[in-house]
Amino acid sequence: MTIGLKLSICVATFNRGGFISETLDSIVAQIQPDVELVVVDGASTDDTFERMTEFKSRHPCVRYVREPQNSGVDRDFDKAVSYAEGEYVWLMTDDDLMVAGAVQRVLEVLDGRYELVIVNSEVRSADLSKVLNRRLLDVVEDNEYTNETCEALFVDTARALTFIGSVVIKRQVWLARHRSAYYGTLFIHVGVIFQSPPIGRVRVIADPALQIRYGVAMWTSRSFDVWMFKWPELIWSFRGYSEATKAQITRKEPWRSPMKLFQFRSKNAYSIDEYRKNLANVPGVYRILALIISVFPGPVANVLSIVYLTIRAPSNRTPLYDLVNAQRWPPLRRFMLRWFRL
Hints:
The protein has 342 residues and is α/β, with parallel strands linked by helices. The protein is built from 15 helices and ten strands. Strands 1, 2, 3, 4, 5, 6, 7, 8, 9 and 10 form a ten-stranded mixed sheet that branches. A hairpin with a 6-residue loop joins strand 6 and strand 7.
């Protein structure tokens, strides 16, 4: 390990040539002598290699590792941590932006006392022009947790930690914990953080350090599988947390909720294909309801959900943004984007 290197910013990327340059520009402008930037490319087939070659020609300090084959995002982040040389690693996405001063703010709390630092983010539209949520973590002051308050940490942060860019962790803590069991979950960092035994001292930074480009995640097209199965299975796999605590994050089998299924239908994320793949063999009434919802007219479900959300939760802009962008009739989508100022 390089002596004096405090922080490694680790980016795992795959086929994100359209975003990676802007992301790295927001990071490299903040690089200091005790900070490094490591990019692991999971054998991208788009123009990522060309863009990274050009970027390195301008910023030779950047470490770029192109893997011979794609191993999945979880394994690639794990590899990035293994290549890193800093005392801490910041797991950064390949399509979002760091706000000015973010690196310095994080460095100010990396004094060795904390094993984990969780940074806050601002959620924006895909083109970053509109703010959907000013704080992904609903906190206005920095918080601290210890292993005695691990359940509170779980309840307060687990949902926000679906965004991997929130995580700054001691490299040796990461390497000492089980990781391979979480390959393929899409949330290896959540597995590392909430497995037993609990992590010791944790700091949450309230002021947003990142701008999330909402709606462009690589797994967006698989959102039904992710949120109905992968995420609940991960959350409910953790020992040391009560069922009541885990239920605050997600139901164990959220697909049993007709309302949840209808929400996914209204976003074009649930159809007869998902039904046949995942729910055709579930018992009794659930199967019948799941089938009916899977063939319910998607545009109608979309409009009904938009009306419902507008009445019940008009300030909740992120799910409204999802619904409006899922509308398949372009004139209506354009009208609603202007109407709701999304």
